[in-house]
Amino acid sequence: MGCPKEYSTKGGMGAALLSDPDKIEKILSTLVKGIHKPVTCKIRILPSLEDTLNLVKRIERTGISAIAVHGRNREERPQHPVSCEVIRAIAETLSIPVIANGGSHDHIQQHLDIEDFRQATAASSVMVARAAMWNPSIFLKDGLRPLEEVMQKYIRYAVQYDNHYTNTKYCLCQMLREQLESPQGRLLHAAQSSQEICEAFGLGAFYEETIRELDARRADLLAKTPEAVEEPAEDTSGIIKMAIKFDRRAYPPQITPKMCLLEWCRREKLPQPMYETVQRPIDRMFCSVVTVAEQKYQSTLWDKSKKLAEQTAAIVCLRSQGLPEGRLGEESPSLNKRKREAPNQDPGGLRVQEPALPGEICKKPFVTLGSSEDDLLEGC
Fold it and tell me: Are the C-beta atoms of 39 and 67 separated by less than 8 Å?
């Protein structure tokens, strides 16, 4: 119940729950009675100390095992000071453990500061978010490691464990912070793949070597378990196939192959495209088959996500029909015309954004191999 962001509060979630103590009590009581695991919750403080203490007492009576307290109210953000004295009052009032949160900006700069913040709030323990994102080595008792060393090590882990580049990029941006305008920061900001991130940090050779090793390992696994490597589970005869990958950088920001294919189907008065996507358990890669006018289309190359696989299938269909797919420099009259329409206009009942297709399926694998906006942690 700590997140103050609109995407949570507008749905009555996050910090919005703090204004509905009855619902809080019902949720927590139901959880405590319904499961045999410790139940905890996290809150922000209320505008008045009296209201805050009344709320936490009521929460404690539900039977929860611990409570985390972010020492700011719903309207406050990291630039506002954290209220250590309110967290202390809560800790002195309750008999259950209190976890102090919100000290990253003002109090926690290194490992020793974590204990100082705990003592200042009289809490049982401390929850660290932003300070840990800025430099994860804050948990080392012998002191912070140089940021360059931490980022290099993080990038190596991210590549070795196939972390999605957007998450890697986000975490590195959190580490760089005020250095984002530096030459290296600009290279990171422009990166559109794990390889480009590695090149920005002088790890291009490491990336290439690691990818070769991962590809060899994947090929070895596939060779040893052929039964796990199957095409989409249906009769594949008659499927038109091409070896195609979808490169987002080759398309304008608001145009995709799926959008172009949907437009063409509507213009030709055909049923909308139907996508069936499966995930290969052995390496968690995706393949999609799109059906248009009773003909199926598929790429022979597997993708890292369901969305990419569907875009690739759409490209196969468009190219086999000799149709424009929306690439940069390619003319697509109907889409370009509609992009110029006012946002509130809906000519002919068509929308620029892709609709959710009711026929879309993503079959879940039963096994996988172990080793994805705004700042979600900020102010939560």
Answer: no
Mean pLDDT, the chain, whole residue set = 86
Instruction: Give the Cα separation of 165 and 154 in Å (integer).
Output: 12
Collapse the DSSP code of 159 into the 3-class scheme (helix H, G, I; strand E, B; otherwise coil) and give the result: helix
**Residue of 294, 299, 286 lying closest to 270 (CA atoms):** 294
Catalytic residue status for 173: no
CA angle 329, 335, 338 (to 5 degrees): 130
Residue with tokens 């900006």, as numbered in its chain:
105
- Give one DSSP letter per residue of 7-19, joined into a string: HHHTTT-GGGGGG
Query: What is the DSSP secondary structure assignment for residue 82, as one 8-state letter?
Result: P
Six token digits for residue 324 = 């424009």
> Burial, 315: exposed, middle or buried (Cβ in 10 Å; 0-12, 13-18, 19+)?
buried
Measuring CA to CA, how many Å separate 275 from each of 235, 263, 270, 300, 356? Answer: 15, 15, 15, 15, 11
Is the distance from CB of 42 to CB of 1 less than 8 angstroms? yes
Query: Of 3, 41, 84, 198, which one is the catalytic site residue?
Result: 3
10-36 pLDDT, tens digit per residue, is 999 999 999 999 999 999 999 999 999
Helix axes 165-176, 183-190, angle to 10 degrees: 160
Banded model confidence at residue 330, pLDDT cuts 50, 70, 90: confident
Which pTM value belongs to this model? Answer: 0.62
Residue 342 pLDDT level (bands cut at 50, 70, 90) = very low
Pairing of strands 274-280, 361-363: parallel
What percent of the chain has pLDDT above 90? 72
- Check residue 371 and report its DSSP letter: -
